[in-house]
Write a structure and sequence with these properties.
The complex is a heterotrimer of chains A (376), B (232) and C (284). With 376 residues, chain A is an alpha+beta fold. In chain A, 25% of the residues lie in helices and 35% in strands. Chain A is built from 10 helices and 20 strands. In chain A, strand 4 and strand 5 (80-81) form a beta hairpin. In chain A, helix 3 packs across helix 4 (124-137). Chain A starts with 18 loop residues before the first strand and ends with a strand. By secondary structure, chain B is mainly alpha-helical. Chain B has helices at 2-16, 20-53, 59-70, 74-85, 100-124, 128-136, 141-151, 153-168, 172-178, 188-198, 201-227. The N and C termini of chain B lie far apart (48 Å). Chain C folds into 2 domains: 30-108 and 223-279, D-Maltodextrin-Binding Protein, domain 2; 110-220, D-Maltodextrin-Binding Protein, domain 2 (3-Layer(aba) Sandwich). Helices cover 45% and strands 21% of the residues of chain C. In chain C, strands 1, 2, 3, 4, 5, 6, 7, 8, 9 and 10 form a 10-stranded mixed β-sheet that branches. The chains are: A alpha+beta (376), B mainly alpha (232), C alpha/beta (284). At the B-C interface, helix 2 and helix 10 of B face helix 1, helix 2, strand 2 and helix 8 of C.
Chain lengths: 376, 232, 284
């Protein structure tokens, strides 16, 4: 599994990764909570670690930062081993981390943002300049002299980010920085953050359990669970070609079906599922047990009576079992002889007068079907 | 009732005429308790922080010991210190029994566990990730500890005030190791008890009032530092 | 932040000033530890005598005022250099056991039996201490004892013994464990009888609701001696210092001070100088 992690770096050719971790392992009370053979991060890239709570994201971040020494393995910064070729203190002065809680100091916003610089004994005049710049950047210049205790959640987190950016770190680590904020605050902050990262091109590693956040902000995504990295790659890759069932369901593949290959010909296969035949792309031989993943966004619905030409090869009539409102679109659960989930807009829902119990036609392209090998 | 008024009157007279004996006693009280509190501050906060921030086997036992020390009866401390300092005792060669120095030692022993115990609690109630955050901003270990201490300054200053309060009002140990010697090791508390014993109630009340004023003034200063909000 | 550092720095400087002069305690050879009784301190006699002595000889006297019993124990342990006490029987044992040397008579005053003006035991005017005590016991009027092995306590016990009265465990008999001044205060509050030296009583009289009810019995003589602690038992004893103090207490100038001490304030002397006399001379 971890072999997929030792993959090519993000389009930068053969330059040394800015950070490399080898053999990172942490065990607590006999349980392994982190187990990673290698992980490489390229300069300037934004990598997100996604996974459920307890997946080991924070443990990995803390290890990569060298904030604790309670892990096995080694970490290389720009090719040099930390602890031997470059000291931990030197490394720590080149990075910065932001946590889920802002963890501000009991002083003014200005002093907070300046704290890292104070640790590095930067000159007062320079500090003022850098702090002002970063307060501007995050839109909190007007809070400069406020006591940190009086800030709202969003404001506090902006201060925390400004504090980290003021250090102009080589690598920025963030542990679920937006999770504790309410939706509109998150939105606004994520937008600003996106813009700032885009402009500064700081290497960023951040952990989140929100896959949307990960997709939006990252160049690469690492899906973690049980202390291991299950898959690491470009977002589209992970989303549409999940490496296994866990990753699939985590990245939002709602339809996961188990079946057997019936026919295989020139890169195309026909799979039997629940008595129906589904066409997909793949090279698996007949008789093989496989898993099919179909993203709900790729399933199109049309009324049985429309008669419109459907270019997809997989067309199945089915009965709507349930319609759920998910914010701005709807999730439609259907029984087509096998369970199938589609997303539709409100517009479509109304146009087709969809409701539970109605018979409908669902279709999806063969290329939209992702094939996984069944385990065991 | 009028005894109290007489006492208050006497207190003001003694203060405003700068009665030399009373001034001397007051100054000695400040010196002895001040130095003792200062030393206990240094030991208490440093050791307390170290204990709070580290993990080691037997930590719970150590913390219980410290907490028990907070309630150590001063008179017991006085007894043991004087036994050690007796001429023929183990530390008799120092010849410091019945001196202000002995009083400082006894008071330091009384105040240190108080400061230490409250420091441990104060440091332990800081958010657990704060330590990591400070390190993640590039602080050295020393800078980290100092920053944590600044963050906990509210309860830490309360600890100092508790330590000071405990010793400025203390009498048992002060009499035993100090001897209440006129003009040399007599402080406000021991003088008050002596004057009460002699039946000089006005003087005793006057001294008590001076002691209260002293304690209040010092705590006022410390509270000011504690409550100061940062925005400049 | 700067302000805190400045305050701390100032505090350190201030403390430095405190520490340096305050603790230049006189060199140890010049220190004398005088163990004495609370009554000598409470009357203020020592507050007058000690400065005279210190000025004259350059010694520094650490006056530790505890009961005679504790003072002698300190002497037995070598924790004092010289004693000024008033518990003759115990003192004699002390010297006989070789703990003390050069026991010299210094002064005397007397004990009086005081009690509430109402005098429920009707002892006013009685000349015999034993008789007074018998009457107090008979009337079960409250009696307060110091109960602290002091000279006063020893004297009190001897009177009970001579009167053949059982007092221990009796409800009317209570022990305070306190010094003379405090015991008088408690007696005043509780309207109880007690035995006290005249000096302390006179010094506190104005605040007490007690009167002298019985006095004058030879048995009530309160005799003070100065005893030097025996250096052969405890080598750390300040021998020259102890000797200087003992000599001082019996010197003519000191005796003269003792003679007139208290006259101004209380109208009568609190002590009677006796240096050079023999104990027996006093019982006239």
């Amino acid at each position: 599994m971890n072999s997929s992690c030792a993959q090519s770096l993000h389009g930068t050719g053969e330059t040394t990764p800015v950070l490399e971790g080898r053999g990172l392992r942490v065990a607590r009370s006999g349980f392994s909570i982190l187990d990673i053979d290698t992980i490489l991060i390229a300069e300037g890239e934004v990598l997100s670690l996604v996974g459920p709570n307890g997946a080991g994201k924070t443990t990995l971040l803390v290890a990569l930062c060298m904030l604790t020494k309670s892990f096995q393995g080694s970490i290389f910064f720009k090719g040099k081993k930390i602890g031997e070729e470059v000291s931990i203190d030197t490394y720590r002065r080149k990075i910065a981390m932001v946590f889920q809680e802002a963890l501000l100091f009991n002083t003014t916003v200005f002093e907070n943002v300046a704290s890292g610089l104070n640790f590095r004994k930067v000159k007062k005049s320079k500090i003022r300049h850098i702090v002002d710049e970063n307060l501007e950047r995050f839109g909190i210049a007007h809070l400069k002299d406020r006591s940190a205790r009086t800030l709202s959640g969003g404001e506090a987190q902006r201060v925390s980010l400004a504090r980290a950016f003021a250090l102009n770190p080589d690598i920025l680590f963030l542990d679920e920085p937006f999770s504790a904020l309410d939706q509109p605050t998150r939105e606004s902050l994520i937008s600003d953050f996106e813009a700032i990262i885009g402009e500064s091109r700081t290497t960023t590693i951040f952990a989140t359990h929100d896959r949307m956040e990960a997709l939006r902000l990252s160049d690469r995504v690492a899906v973690m669970d049980g202390g291991k990295i299950l898959q690491m790659g470009y977002p589209e890759e992970v989303m549409n070609h999940p490496a296994d069932e866990f990753v699939a369901s985590f990245v939002g593949v709602e339809t996961i079906l188990k079946g057997k290959v019936l026919e295989a010909k020139e890169g195309e296969i026909v799979v039997s599922i629940g008595g129906h035949k589904i066409e997909a792309l793949g090279n698996d031989p007949p008789g093989e047990h496989i898993i099919l993943c179909i993203r709900p966004e790729n399933v199109t619905l049309s009324s049985s009576s429309s008669g419109a030409q459907i270019s997809a090869r997989n067309v199945f009539p089915g009965v709507i079992e349930k319609i759920t409102l998910l914010g701005l679109h709807y999730r439609v659960d259907m029984d087509c002889g096998f369970p199938l989930v589609a997303y539709v807009t409100k517009h479509s829902l109304e146009n087709m007068s969809l409701n539970a119990g109605k018979t409908i036609e669902a279709s999806f392209k063969a290329t939209a079907v992702h094939v996984l090998k069944a385990k065991g | 009732m009028e005894l109290i008024f007489e006492g208050i009157k006497r207190a003001f007279i003694l203060l405003f005429t700068f009665d030399p004996e009373v001034m001397g006693i007051t100054l000695l009280s400040i010196k002895v308790s001040g130095v003792a509190t200062f030393v206990s501050l240094l030991i208490g906060i440093s050791v307390g922080t170290a204990v709070a921030l580290s993990t080691f086997p037997g930590k719970k036992i150590v913390v219980s010991l410290i907490n028990t020390g907070m309630g150590l009866p001063p008179v017991v401390v006085g007894l043991f210190v004087s036994i050690f300092l007796w001429r023929n005792g183990p530390l008799g060669f120092l010849g410091i029994l019945y001196t202000p120095l002995a009083m400082i030692i006894a008071q330091t022993i009384i105040a240190t566990p108080i400061v230490m115990g409250i420091t441990v609690a104060a440091m332990q109630q800081l958010p657990k990730k704060l330590r990591l955050q400070i390190l993640a901003l590039g602080a050295s270990r020393v800078q980290m500890v100092w920053t944590l201490i600044k963050e906990a300054r509210l309860p830490l200053l309360a600890a100092v005030m508790a330590g000071f309060g405990g010793v400025i009002s203390e009498i048992g140990a002060s009499i035993m190791v100090g001897g209440n010697i006129k003009g040399y090791s007599r402080v406000l508390t021991t003088a008050t008890v002596m004057e009460t014993g002699k039946g000089n109630f006005e003087v005793a009340i006057a001294l008590s009032i001076i002691l209260l004023l002293l304690a209040y003034t010092i705590n006022l200063i410390l509270t000011n530092i504690q409550q100061r909000e940062r925005p400049r | 932040m700067k302000r805190i550092t400045c305050t701390l720095a100032l505090a350190l400087v201030f403390l430095g000033f405190c520490v340096i002069p305050g603790f230049s305690a006189p060199p140890t050879e010049k220190n004398i530890i005088l163990a004495t009784t609370t009554s000598t301190q409470d009357t203020g006699l020592l507050d007058v005598l000690i400065p005279v002595f210190e000025k004259k000889t350059g010694h520094f006297v650490k006056t530790i005022a505890v009961g005679s019993g504790q003072a002698m124990t300190m002497g037995e342990r070598g924790e004092a250099d010289v004693l000024l006490v008033h518990s003759p029987e115990a003192e004699q044992k002390f010297v006989a056991a070789d703990y003390g040397v050069n026991r010299k008579l210094v002064m005397h005053n007397d004990y009086v039996i005081v009690g509430p003006a109402a005098d429920p035991a009707k002892i006013k005017g009685i000349k015999s201490a034993r008789e007074a005590f018998k009457k107090i016991a008979a009337s079960t009027s409250p009696f307060l004892s110091r109960g602290d092995n002091s000279g006063t306590h020893a004297k009190e016990k001897s009177i009970w013994k001579a009167a053949n009265i059982k007092y221990e465990g009796e409800k009317w008999y209570q022990e305070t464990g306190l010094g003379m001044g405090q015991t008088l205060n408690v007696a005043s509050e509780k309207k109880a009888y007690t035995l006290t030296d005249r000096g302390t009583y006179l010094a506190l009289k104005k605040n007490l609701g007690l009167e002298i009810l019985a006095e004058g019995d030879a048995m009530l003589l309160n005799i003070y001696h100065v005893i030097e602690v025996n250096p052969s038992k405890w080598p750390k004893v300040n021998v020259p210092g102890a000797k200087a103090f003992a000599d001082f207490m019996v010197s003519r100038e000191t005796q003269a001070i003792i003679k007139t001490f208290g006259v101004e304030k209380f109208g009568a002397p609190l002590f009677f100088p006796d240096a050079g006399k023999k104990d027996e001379d006093l019982r006239k």
